[in-house]
Amino acid sequence: MSKQVKIGKVTIGGGAPIAVQSMTNTPTSDAQATLRQIEALAAKGCDIVRASVPDEPSARAFKLICERSPLPVVADIHYDFRMAIAAVENGAAKVRLNPGNLGGEDKLKAVADCIKAHRIPVRVGVNGGSLDKKFAHLPSAEAMCASALEYCGMLEKHGVSDIVISVKSSCVKDMVECNRLLAKRCEYPLHLGVTEAGLYTQGLVKSAVGIGALLLDGIGDTIRVSLTDDPLKEVDAAAEILKAVGRYSKPYAEIIACPTCARTQINVKELAEKVREYTAGIHKNLQIAVMGCIVNGIGESAHCDIGVAGGKERSALFKDGKIIKTVDNKDILDELLKQIDKL
Ligand code: SF4
After folding, report:
1. Minimal CA–CA distance to 57: which of 36, 79, 87, 92?
2. DSSP letter (8 states) at residue 251
3. Tens of pLDDT along the chain (343 residues)?
4. d(CA 51, CA 210)
5. How remote is the CA of residue 294 from the centroid of ligand 1, in Å?
6. For the chain, which domains are there?
7. Helix, strand, coil share (%) of the chain residues, nearest 5
């Protein structure tokens, strides 16, 4: 089992629930816009948010962002050790950096001392696309793993041991293999993600395959679905991945809907969407089925808490595989929602 690390009020690793992360895409220097986005991410169910701190105006705004944010805020640092120190002093709950590109040992030591004084963890990030040439002779997954462990060693040398590792690659297979190696070779919590995953559908599928495969192996402590899209969609996608692998930690209503076929008697898509909207605010573990026909629908979703199976003029409401009543097709939605309220 991985070591536990605290990121503000959120614990990751060591069997804690898998934390969902996203990243703001507003200019960090615009504290109000960034806070609005963080609040929207929090409302969607995001647990931890990351913001880039590329310059001094961003570092100044970062202080207000950390003070007002409902979520722990991670500072994303590239190259400039002064930004790392400013972000930590201004309230970062974690700092994401590459110890190899801060400008040398003295600067790394200054950052490490600041991190230790503020008792926050560090995330070391290795990106498959920018690996040190000295690892070029190794297969990609081995090279990323070696690079990540080297980064950990550089921090450990300065007394930093609250470390989270992320190795990201746009190649799903490399990302999965590398995280499997890391899970065997170290105890640090792992942040999972497929980087530059792409536009919505491609990004969602690549992330679901890579993150999902690892979570099913019991590997991974926090996840980010990277999409070339609105960050709010990343949080929705992460939640769906966690639900699909049985690692979603909050109660929720699952809508089971048939794919429809020539037997379909009702508008399954419209009805399922309305039920999904209605149940979005219900925090109970429920399974609700919307099926297109009575012939196969009831049998295919017999385990549901409540379901509807379409008929020509009247549809059947069923529970635990048995019909409890039939309703006129124009009343299906109202009747189904009434039944859901009783659950
Ligand atoms: S439940 Fe009925 S309508 Fe839906 S896919 Fe199966 S056979 Fe077709």
Report:
1. 87
2. -
3. 899 999 999 999 999 999 999 999 999 999 999 999 999 999 999 999 999 999 999 999 999 999 999 999 999 998 899 999 999 999 999 999 999 888 899 999 999 999 999 999 999 989 887 788 899 899 999 999 999 999 999 999 999 999 999 998 889 999 999 999 999 999 999 999 998 778 899 999 999 999 999 999 999 999 999 999 999 999 999 999 999 999 999 999 999 999 999 999 999 999 999 999 999 888 899 999 999 999 888 888 888 999 999 999 999 999 988 899 999 999 999 999 999 999 8
4. 24
5. 8
6. 5-244 (3.20.20.20), 253-342 (3.30.413.10)
7. 45, 20, 35
Whole-number Å distance, alpha carbon 216 to ligand 1 midpoint, is: 29
With 0.70 as the threshold, say if the pTM is over it.
yes
> Residue 65: CB partners within 8 Å, gap ≥ 6?
28, 31, 34, 35, 38, 51, 73
- Which residue has the CA at smallest separation from atom 8 of ligand 1? 261
Handedness of CA 180, 99, 8, 236 (dihedral sign): negative
Residue located nearest, by CA, to atom 5 of ligand 1: 260
Backbone angles phi, psi at 280, to 5 degrees: -55, -35
